[in-house]
Every structure is written in structure tokens, then in C-alpha cells.
């Protein structure tokens, strides 16, 4: 609709009167303003408290400075790649039962589960992913996230009183507490140990490459007690990372596999690249090898363009804001930045609904406005996990594709999308697996 009527456009997002913006210059200007999140983000606070996604600007500034260093490229390679590889090897083993049986199956349940275990391991060093307490935690988190999405779209659930009543009627009044129980217990132990051992840590220590560390431990090493998060803040932040980092990456992986299964010509090119980089080497990928997988990276980026995991970014403004056209967004407005309209604009991407990794070759990227590809948002509140996401997606896809070839009977037109807070396939990711060896 934005492509027909242009940007900006005044519209109702369900019940919210909002200004929709999809011009890349305007979106970049708005993202650079560090506007407060729209009030509907507070629905997430039941689950993730005041973590980075929900925090107001004052709290966010302090916590983002503490958390960002855990996501730099060296930290990722030194600490998390080993966990990614361990989880991916388990995944390859689990998938063996589907190999060469020529039956379609939905791969997303395996991918979802691997992404969830991976983020729990890298965030808080939790590895017992077959334990009943872990499975209960996962189930509760999924239910809690569904309930939040339902609240967002049903205006009558916006009132705190009605929502509380509703959760009681449907027997879910303690779902948020259930979803927080396991991380709370783990982090309480870590917090207490840290207080006992605080004298042994010095600020700005770096990992000397011996034992990989989880995000919580990295944060403890980088900060002394005076500047650190409280136990509640730490729990909120870790839950935020688990919530924001598991399903999003899993969806991107599942869609990429689905598209490669539909496009054997593109998949053959990925296999060729993997053969050149890895040859007969059967070891897990290193950061250097992953860096060389340029064509696979194009496929991942094209998936993030075509299947926009987070399609809308909501903010609110308490001052008048002038757009490129001279039009004013009045103070007090809700602003909806439509990443979907930017990624699917045919003036930027010819045939925007066709998945085409060549959209991300060097020449095509160089010709485009930088604000035309924003899967992780932009500005200072850009996704803190973007490098983590790209590395974990690439590690998992390269491992799967070194072992298997994927086919499907579906085509791109068969994919139906389901939108709640994020976008996923409504009809699953049904593929067949074939051995490459
Ligand atoms: C394909 C995967 C991912 C996509 C598409 C994605 C997308 C996004 C987007 C669009 C935002 C901005 C939301 C807004 O402002 O309303 C965001 C924020 C955020 N993401 Fe991601 N994300 C992904 C993976 C991850 C991962 C793996 C993590 C953590 C390990 C993560 C943690 C966060 C956090 C904490 C924020 C809030 C940042 C802040 O406000 O400072 N995300 N993400």
C-alpha cells in the first residue's frame, strides 16, 4: 500500500493511529534520532522486563554500553563459534534419520530447537538441553511470546486489567513467571559466585583463547562490580537476548534452506563454494573459512531482504519531525517504519518478490542506497546481535550444506506468510534431505 500511496502515509495499524514511513532517507533520519519505543513495546516487559528491547532511552544507554562489547567479532569467533559448531554437529546427527528417505518433512522444528539451545549455551552457559526443566522453559517461553503477540493485535487486551483477567481465564496467569524461572535460577547462582570471586577479576581482561565463555561471563570480565548490572537487570538482559535471538535466526535459516531447495541451480553454486573452501576437510568451520563463503552470505542476505523477519519498527515522538518532503510528523505521533516496503520496493530491487542472491553481489550493493537493506534496523538501536546472527546462520547453513543436499516439491508462490510480531511461513518448511557423501 505504501508503494501505491507513497511515504509518509497516515494509517491505522489495527487500532493505533500512526504515520507510516518507508522512504530510506526518512527512515534513516528517524532511526538516527534515537526516538523512544512505541508504548506497545511495554507488553514485552511481562517477559523481558527492562532489557534492551523495552528499556527507555535513559536505561538503554547505560545497558547497551555494557552489553555491546560481548558481541564484537573477536569475541564471537573466540567464544561462540565452538558452541555453534557443537550444536550444529548434534543437528546433523539428528537429521540423519530423514536422509535419503524421499519423504518431505518440516525442518523448522529441528532448526528452532538448535537455535534455542545455541543461544542458551552462548548467553548463560546452559548445556543440558534434554533436561525436563529446559524443555519446560522453552515451552513456556514460546507460549508467553504467543500471548504477547495476541495482546498486541487485540485492542481489548491492551488494558492491564483486562489482560490480567484474560490470562487468568485461559489458565496462563503464571506463564511469564514460568518462562523466567530457569534463567533466574542460573543467573542467581552466577551472580552469587561472581560476588564471591569479584577480587579475582580485573576490568578489561580479554579471553586469552583458552576456554570459551558465555555472554554473562564475558560481561563480568569486562566490568567491575561498581558499574555492573543488578541481578534483576542481568536476568532481564539475558532473557531479552534469548527471546530476540532464537526464533529470528531460526526463521532466517529455515527460509534460506527452503529457497535453496527450490533453486537447485543456486544450491549447486553454494556446494561448489563449500567444496572450494573446505575440500575434503571434515573439521568444523573456522572463522576464516566462514569469512570466505561469500556466495552463501549473498543467499542469507537475500533471504533477510525477501522474508523480512521484523517487518515493522515502531517509535513515538514528543517533538515535531520534518521529513525529506518537508512534511511534518507532529509531536505525539506513533511512527511505523515499514522495512517490508523498503525491501520489496521494485524501484530498488527489480522483481522484488523473486528470491535472487545476485541482489547482494558487490556491484549491486555498491549501486544501492545504504538505507534500502535494514533487516536489523539501523541507528543506535540497531540489533545488538546482528553479527552474532549472521555468524550463527552462516555456520549452521554451511554445516548442513556440507553434509546434505536439499530438495522440495514446493515453489516460491506456495509460501504463505504469517505475521504477528515477526514473520514466519504459515505452511512450514517442507523439504527432503539427500546425502552428499
Ligand atoms: C536474523 C536474526 C535477527 C533479526 C532479523 C533481528 C532483527 C532485529 C531488529 C529489526 C531489531 C530492532 C527492533 C526495534 O527497534 O524495534 C532488533 C533489536 C534487537 N535484537 Fe535482533 N535480530 C536478529 C537476531 C538477534 C540475535 C541473535 C540477538 C541476540 C543474540 C538479537 C538481540 C537483539 C536485541 C537485544 C535488540 C534490541 C537492541 C537495542 O534496542 O539496543 N537479535 N533485532
Automatic annotation (TrEMBL):
Q: Does the keyword Hydrolase apply?
A: no
PROSITE patterns assigned: CYTOCHROME_P450 (PS00086)
Pfam families recorded for this chain?
p450
Q: Where does heme bind?
A: 383
- Cellular component GO terms, alphabetically? endoplasmic reticulum membrane
**Predominant location of this chain?**
endoplasmic reticulum
Q: How does it sit in the membrane?
A: Peripheral membrane protein
Q: What is this protein called?
A: Cytochrome P450
- Which organism's genome codes for this protein? Parthenolecanium corni
Lineage here is: Eukaryota, Metazoa, Ecdysozoa, Arthropoda, Hexapoda
